[in-house]
Amino acid sequence: MWGKLLGVCFGFMFGRWLGAIFGFWLGHLFDRSLKQDFDKVGGFQGFFKGDDLHQRQALFFSSCFAVMGHIAKSNGRVSETHIKAASLFMDEMGLHAEDRQEAQNAFRAGKESDFELKQAVQDFKEVFSRRYDLLQLFLEIQIQMAFSDGHLAPQEVQLLKKVSQLLGVSNTHFSFILKRYQAEFKFRQQRAQQGEQQQYRAPQPTSEISRGQALAVLGLSEPANEKDVKRAYRKLMAQHHPDKLVSQGLPQHMMEVAKKKSQDIQAAYEFLK
């Protein structure tokens, strides 16, 4: 249809009615040819084939666990804490049987001395270069693994910086992400402690969530007004929206990771409100 319409318009401009008739004929040929090519790829369904999405999800999955394994061995050996953290991470994702075995194999591959971190991250970035939220989540997951024992060793920080640079993340934004995750880690711990205290009806809580800690989860500090809080909240929720991330290539198994981050952001915002 569009070929005929454009053909008539341009034909009339250059040849009046005779040109319009000729343009209509050319447009008809164009439309027929376009339809044949369009049908070959399955019509509109061709734009929504899942093969490419599944490939991106598989790459995210394997790359994530391989780099996790590499960072876990940054001190020369993988500690029991890191092994437990990786296992708990797989539990949170609900990995069983073949999926869990694939994750374990990728983690082991990352621990090998011949693992090419630079090549692995560059390959990952090449596929996800236009999906900045996924690049950021990938980096956050690596920070989560490194911080699983409650602190970061100098070697871990250096490796995380290297990964962020390979992903194209600036040093300033890396520092921002790192600081925000550390706040998120403490915030989550304190929420869990308060939940236990309420369950057992402890007379006095041993830890209280402060405004400063909730602000830090949103990447803010004092002085921050209501407008700043709303802006930061909306931006972070958009970046960590599970459904959006899955549509961009986040594996379904890792949807739980995005959900937990969204819950922390939501809880910090509700506390500040």
Automatic annotation (TrEMBL):
UniProt-recorded Gene Ontology molecular function terms: protein-folding chaperone binding
Record's subcellular location: Cell inner membrane
Recorded superkingdom: Bacteria
Family annotation (InterPro entries): DjlA (IPR023749), DjlA_DnaK_co-chaperone (IPR050817), DjlA_N (IPR007791), DnaJ_domain (IPR001623), J_dom_sf (IPR036869), TerB-like (IPR029024)
Entry keyword set: Cell inner membrane, Cell membrane, Chaperone, Membrane, Transmembrane, Transmembrane helix
Main function: Regulatory DnaK co-chaperone. Direct interaction between DnaK and DjlA is needed for the induction of the wcaABCDE operon, involved in the synthesis of a colanic acid polysaccharide capsule, possibly through activation of the RcsB/RcsC phosphotransfer signaling pathway. The colanic acid capsule may help the bacterium survive conditions outside the host.
HAMAP family xrefs: DjlA
Oligomeric and partner information: Homodimer.
UniProt-recorded name of the protein: Co-chaperone protein DjlA
Species the sequence originates in: Pseudoalteromonas citrea
UniProt gene name: djlA
